Amino acid sequence: MIGNTVALKVKFANESGMLYDVTDVKLVIYNDRKKVIHEVDGDQIEKVDTGTYKYEYTIPNGSGQIYYEYQAMYQGSLIVGRRILTREWILRGGGCDGLCND
Q1: Parallel, antiparallel, or unpaired: how do β-strands 52-58 and 5-11 relate?
Q2: Domain residue spans in the chain?
Q3: Is residue 21 within 8 Å of residue 72, measured between CB atoms?
Q4: Cα–chain-centroid distance for residue 38?
Q5: Highest taxon of the source (predicted)?
Q6: Which of 1, 63, 70, 76 has the fewest Cβ atoms nearer than 10 Å?
Q7: Taking the CB of residue 70, how many other CB atoms lie within 10 A of it?
Q8: DSSP label at 13?
Q9: 59, 64, 89, 98 from 93: Cα distances, Å
Q10: Residue 82 backbone class (left: φ over 0; alpha: ψ -120 to 50; beta: rest)
């Protein structure tokens, strides 16, 4: 996945699964040491549908997991949700990316 662009998605829903819109959406991306490596404000985050948002992110070189966190406000309360994104190499084609020993 390193070097690929992925859609980091979030859905804000109540306990019965009903989606709702939020305000002040923000995305924070952390490295495996919990250090902030990228921040995005609401102007750059795409609203896909009611309560559903996404951001296109290119996975940087490096090792270790990446954590992404969406933050938003709803009726005066801060809502925070986090997910883990595993950073790994993806081989193209036959599985050895032209580096196989015959």
Answers
A1: antiparallel
A2: 5-85
A3: no
A4: 11
A5: Bacteria
A6: 76
A7: 24
A8: B
A9: 20, 24, 13, 8
A10: beta
Q: How many residues does this entry show for the chain?
A: 102
Q: Are 87 and 59 in contact (CB under 8 A)?
A: yes
The second-level CATH assignment, the architecture, of 5-85 is Sandwich (2.60)
Cross-strand pairs, 72: 79
Residue 59 is given by DSSP the state: P
Cα–Cα distances (Å) from 55 to 5, 39, 101, in that order, read: 10, 11, 39
Q: Per-residue pLDDT for the chain (102 aa), expressed as one digit of tens each?
A: 677 889 999 999 999 999 999 999 999 999 999 999 999 998 899 999 999 999 999 988 888 899 999 999 999 999 999 999 887 765 555 444 444 444
